[in-house]
């Protein structure tokens, strides 16, 4: 849904075995999707939208690769976990400090430090060029003071 810029549409499908489908049919509302959600979903997957979608995916991919290259150049970052998604996971010595540092600069990053096996990890989402420049600047300044 994010690749189609339709995450807020809340339109999806269920693929399951017949027993699960039978249970769902008993509890689902008679008209579970609003007409506007259906229209938005159909527009998002139309032929015209496919070109824009591919451009968006390519842009996110380039931004993600650029971010990964930047992160790998920072000696205070211990691990960078590459992905094909619209985010990058990285491990640092002071995840809580980094999250606070970014928060005070108006940048939200996701803290996974309290998650088992993800201690020290934060997730950086891919944003616009301007947002990525702000993020890199904040990371650079955090690294300089760390």
Could you explain how this protein is built, in words?
It is a single chain. This protein has two domains: 1-45, no CATH class; 60-145, Aspartate Aminotransferase, domain 1, CATH 3.90.1150.10. It is α+β, with helices and mostly antiparallel strands and 146 residues long. A four-stranded antiparallel beta sheet has the order 1-2-4-3, covered by helices on one side. The chain contains five helices and four strands; from the N terminus they run αααββαββα.
Task: Note the main attributes of this structure.
Aspartate Aminotransferase, domain 1; 4-stranded antiparallel beta sheet; 4 strands; alpha+beta; 146 residues; single chain; 5 helices; 2 domains
Reported by name, the CATH topology of the largest domain is Aspartate Aminotransferase, domain 1
Percentage of helical residues? Answer: 40-55%
How many separate domains? 2
Structural class: alpha+beta
Q: How many alpha or pi helices?
A: 5
Mean residue pLDDT:
90
CATH superfamily of the largest domain: Aspartate Aminotransferase, domain 1
